[in-house]
Design goal:
An eight-stranded mixed sheet has the order 3-4-2-5-1-6-7-8, with helices on both faces. 48% of the residues lie in helices and 16% in strands. Helix 1 crosses helix 6, helix 1 (3-13) runs antiparallel to helix 13 (278-291) and helix 2 (35-48) packs across helix 12. The chain has a single domain, classed as Rossmann fold, CATH 3.40.50. The radius of gyration is 18 Å and the shape is globular. It is of the alpha/beta class. It is built from 13 helices and eight strands.
């Protein structure tokens, strides 16, 4: 019996928790567009709306989330898989009840995982579905294998784009590669675009319209518009102080914009709860693809 078959058997035997968390993956076509900053501040705003939020820093090796929070975690996801740590031990508490998990190099080492580790990991990740209402996955940037794997496995994706030409072309390239993946199902994945560092709301909407025009013409991917975040000097000030701008500058244009995005996510129509896959199923789907390569 190969690893992929072992995984399928484990998932079948696993009893589902009473509820599955809403998983939102934040990604971009290139680095430097404010993706991780958005993920952190979106998490803060969602906690203010009464949601229990956990961020998984899946930008392996860069640790952007912990840098922006000014907190160094003691453990990572790799310690859960290989270090016999509990889920509670690898969760780091951030400001305003925000929680986050450092990815470490855990997912990159999945090809060597044993049946016992698969079983243990699957049970522990279902615990995360019970701890959190919303799990935000901050991926790496670009069209790397791990980024595509997360996007393909996710039910909700936020695609961050700036008006810079390279950001636009790289974001389209990401969608184009995704569109060619046979395992990607556009009907089961909601992709929402966020325009970052815009001068006006009209610029953000125009950026989406231009992107969506090309997407509709050449791809089968469905792209929605969630909203925009203005250019704001307070963002870089907060980064320098390693604090979220939603905390340091709660009345800044950027903080108010992200607050509106959080409200839209909560008030909009999320993935149907009966169809929600949760974090454990997302993660086991990642492992399945890796062990099938």
């Amino acid at each position: 019996m190969d690893q992929a078959e072992q995984l399928r058997n484990i998932v079948k035997k696993q009893s589902l928790p009473d509820k599955l968390a809403r998983v939102i993956t934040v990604t971009s076509g290139k680095g430097g567009v404010g993706k991780s900053n958005l993920a952190v501040n979106l998490g803060i705003q969602l906690t203010r709306l009464g949601k229990r939020v956990v961020i998984l820093d899946a930008d392996f090796g860069l640790a952007n989330v912990e840098v922006m929070l000014g907190i160094r975690p003691k453990h990572s996801l790799a310690d859960l898989i290989y270090g016999n740590k509990t889920l509670q031990e690898i969760i780091t508490k951030g400001p305003e009840d925000l929680m986050f998990i450092s990815g470490g190099s855990g997912i990159q080492e999945m090809s060597d995982i044993t049946k016992g580790q698969l079983d243990f990991l699957n049970r522990k990740l279902y615990e995360l579905d019970e701890i959190a209402d919303i799990i935000i996955i901050d991926t790496g940037a670009g069209i790397t294998g791990s980024v595509l794997e997360f996007v393909i496995a996710s039910e909700e994706v936020l695609l961050v784009i700036t008006p810079e030409p390279t950001s636009i072309t790289d974001a389209y390239a990401l969608l184009k590669v995704l569109n060619k993946k046979p395992e990607f199902n556009s009907e089961q994945t909601s992709i929402k675009m966020i325009s970052n560092r815009i001068n006006t709301l009209e610029e953000g909407r125009s950026l989406y319209n231009k992107m969506n025009l090309v997407v509709e013409k050449f791809l089968t991917v469905k792209l929605e518009y969630l909203g925009g975040i203005p250019q704001d000097a307070n963002v870089s000030k907060a980064v320098m102080q390693q604090k979220p701008y939603s905390i340091l500058y709660p009345n800044s244009p950027s903080a108010k914009a992200v607050s509106a995005l959080a409200a839209s996510l909560c008030n909009g129509v999320p993935v149907n709860k009966q169809e929600r896959r949760g974090f454990a199923n997302l993660f086991t789907s990642l492992i399945h693809r890796r062990t099938n390569k």
